[in-house]
Design a protein that fits this description.
single chain; OB fold (Dihydrolipoamide Acetyltransferase, E2P); 30% strand; 5-stranded mixed beta barrel; 138 residues
Length: 138
């Protein structure tokens, strides 16, 4: 067997190893009930939960607890998932762009249940796009 064939086989084996190891770390999208069930079963994998911030009748975001002067590393808020379940979410590493947090259309929290609370390690926000097409009246 030539040395180039051996190097080719080694490269392919390394590539397969990388693909298999990265596929095992992929987390899944669930709702709060599914995330709670996973935690109860002993599964400590991180999950993605998509939801909307709770709002009052006027459309203002309510229930956000964030005081950067008191503790800049603590954020708590209520999130309503796609099944309509509301859950308190705690994050000990809030995103830097907190001024955009209340403007978010959708919020994706990545984390797991610890006890009765959902602890997010990451928060992704989908803000309204200024690039959406608007109807042009003639």
């Amino acid at each position: 067997m030539k040395i180039t064939h051996i190097i080719g086989i080694v490269v392919i084996a390394v590539a397969i190893g990388i693909i298999v190891s990265s596929a095992g770390n992929a987390s899944q999208y669930v709702n709060f009930a599914q995330a709670q069930a996973m935690a109860t079963d002993g599964n400590s994998d991180k999950v993605h939960v998509v939801g909307e911030l709770t709002k009052d009748a006027q459309g203002q975001v309510i229930g956000v607890q964030y005081d950067p002067l008191k503790d800049p590393n603590y954020l708590a808020f209520s999130l309503v998932d796609d099944k309509g379940a509301t859950q308190q979410v705690v994050c000990y590493n809030p995103p830097a762009s907190m001024q955009d947090f209340a403007k978010s259309e959708k919020v994706v929290v990545i984390g797991r249940y610890k006890g009765k609370e959902f602890v997010a390690s990451e928060i992704l926000m989908k803000c309204p796009s200024k690039y959406e097409e608007k109807e042009i009246k003639q």
